[in-house]
């Protein structure tokens, strides 16, 4: 399971407390940062949806031409499935099943592993899917919780990890089912903690309520340890929960509130498990100056950040009809001093003697997402091997539009291109 609290967004209750401490200028700046982050996420999702659509078109054209490419087909199906799932979870799983993405036909265990291991799924969509009161969804929920390892974990630690793997839906009946399944698996992994599953189920709810009471600024009364212990008397088949366990939970929650995934965390998970990442020097678009940038290659996109720890990219390059290749060290390009090995991204051949545009975008000084000023992107690596790895990785991730691919093939083979029909 993927559980990385280091990339956790600020909890909403913590944000409220922070805003209370800021002056008017500080609040405005903070809100601008939040808007910038949301704009970046929207731009990334739109680009990924466009890439998924292009890959779907490629697959359809290949089928018409009798071309087989299982690797591309599977990648295109996955990317398309992710886009659909994040919008309508049930339809996303149905699409993947119909397209034979799952090797065993889409069993509950396969779908649970997909939800657990696919980094680009939003946690809200995962929570919505797991909360459905349908036989198959309930089976997936059981398998999904079973993928967590709760053995010998403190109760609140196990609950934190569980709640970090998806976003709880708002409906109480859905929450009931999800917490009941958690309690069942926790009790199976730790049979000596509770007398019954009901005890774990009720304590899970009590722990969530404690977190809200202690850390939500709008809640005036903060329960004491003794009040928390008193509230949980007799909840385990009429027996009391061991006081040391309740003291441990109270101390942990009081010190560190739950970090609940929100819509922004989707921007963080987008960059897990990249095909390649590392620092490169990048030439500017308008001003031909060189800056260090943290570059991430993932899912047919190249992202660059001002620093490795930044959550939002400063630029996005969709790898749609582009070429990457090594270039010579040209001192006339105001290259930085010292040894270096260069590679560039340019638009692919359009089949008519020109090149296709690169659809890059970036954030400007006001935090707005705008069109980039590049007809090419030039990067410098520290070694020849590193530059070659970047070129190979980028070219392996490039998506090509069928129309231009066929036009290039036609021009090279001497075959006439059919006119497009409206």
TrEMBL record:
<dbReference type="InterPro" id="IPR011993">
    <property type="entry name" value="PH-like_dom_sf"/>
</dbReference>
<dbReference type="GO" id="GO:0005085">
    <property type="term" value="F:guanyl-nucleotide exchange factor activity"/>
</dbReference>
<dbReference type="Pfam" id="PF00169">
    <property type="entry name" value="PH"/>
</dbReference>
<feature type="domain" description="PH">
    <location>
        <begin position="273"/>
        <end position="399"/>
    </location>
</feature>
<dbReference type="InterPro" id="IPR001849">
    <property type="entry name" value="PH_domain"/>
</dbReference>
<feature type="domain" description="SEC7">
    <location>
        <begin position="73"/>
        <end position="256"/>
    </location>
</feature>
<dbReference type="Pfam" id="PF01369">
    <property type="entry name" value="Sec7"/>
</dbReference>
<dbReference type="InterPro" id="IPR000904">
    <property type="entry name" value="Sec7_dom"/>
</dbReference>
<dbReference type="InterPro" id="IPR023394">
    <property type="entry name" value="Sec7_C_sf"/>
</dbReference>
<dbReference type="InterPro" id="IPR035999">
    <property type="entry name" value="Sec7_dom_sf"/>
</dbReference>
<protein>
    <submittedName>
        <fullName>Uncharacterized protein</fullName>
    </submittedName>
</protein>
<dbReference type="GO" id="GO:0032012">
    <property type="term" value="P:regulation of ARF protein signal transduction"/>
</dbReference>
């Amino acid at each position: 399971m993927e559980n990385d609290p280091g990339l956790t967004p600020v909890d909403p209750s913590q944000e409220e407390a922070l805003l209370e401490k800021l002056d008017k200028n500080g609040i405005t700046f903070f809100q601008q940062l939040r808007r910038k982050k949301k704009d970046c996420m929207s731009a990334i999702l739109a680009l990924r949806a466009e890439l998924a659509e292009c890959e779907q078109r490629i697959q359809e054209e290949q089928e018409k031409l009798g071309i087989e490419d299982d690797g591309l087909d599977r990648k295109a199906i996955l990317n398309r499935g992710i886009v659909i799932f994040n919008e309508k979870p049930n339809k996303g799983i149905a699409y993947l099943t119909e397209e034979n993405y799952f090797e065993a036909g889409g069993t509950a265990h396969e779908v649970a592993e997909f939800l657990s291991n696919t980094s680009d799924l939003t946690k809200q969509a995962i929570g919505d899917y797991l909360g459905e009161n349908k036989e198959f969804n309930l089976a997936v929920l059981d398998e999904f919780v079973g993928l967590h390892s709760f053995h010998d974990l403190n109760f609140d630690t196990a609950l934190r990890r569980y709640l970090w793997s998806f976003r709880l839906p708002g409906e109480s009946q859905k929450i009931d089912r999800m917490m009941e399944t958690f309690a069942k698996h926790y009790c199976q992994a730790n049979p000596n903690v509770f007398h019954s599953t009901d005890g774990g189920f009720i304590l899970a709810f009590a722990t969530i309520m404690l977190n809200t009471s202690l850390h939500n600024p709008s809640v005036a009364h903060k329960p004491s340890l003794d009040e928390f212990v008193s509230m949980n008397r007799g909840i385990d088949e009429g027996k009391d929960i061991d006081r040391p366990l309740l003291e441990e939970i109270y101390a942990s929650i009081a010190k560190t509130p739950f970090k609940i995934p929100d819509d922004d965390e989707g921007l963080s998970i987008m960059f897990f498990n990249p095909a390649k990442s590392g620092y490169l020097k990048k030439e500017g678009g308008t001003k031909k100056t060189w800056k260090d940038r943290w570059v991430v290659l993932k899912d047919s996109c190249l992202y660059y950040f001002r620093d490795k720890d930044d959550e939002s990219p400063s630029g996005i390059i969709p790898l749609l009809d582009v070429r990457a290749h090594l270039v010579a060290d040209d001192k006339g390009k105001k290259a930085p001093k010292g040894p270096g090995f260069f590679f560039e991204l340019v638009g692919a051949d359009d089949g008519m003697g020109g090149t296709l545009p690169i659809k890059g975008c970036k954030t400007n000084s006001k935090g707005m997402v705008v069109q980039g000023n590049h007809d090419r992107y030039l990067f410098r690596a520290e070694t020849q091997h590193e530059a070659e790895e970047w070129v190979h990785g980028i070219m392996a991730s490039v998506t090509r539009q069928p129309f231009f691919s066929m036009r290039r093939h036609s021009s090279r083979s001497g075959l006439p291109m059919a006119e497009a029909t409206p």
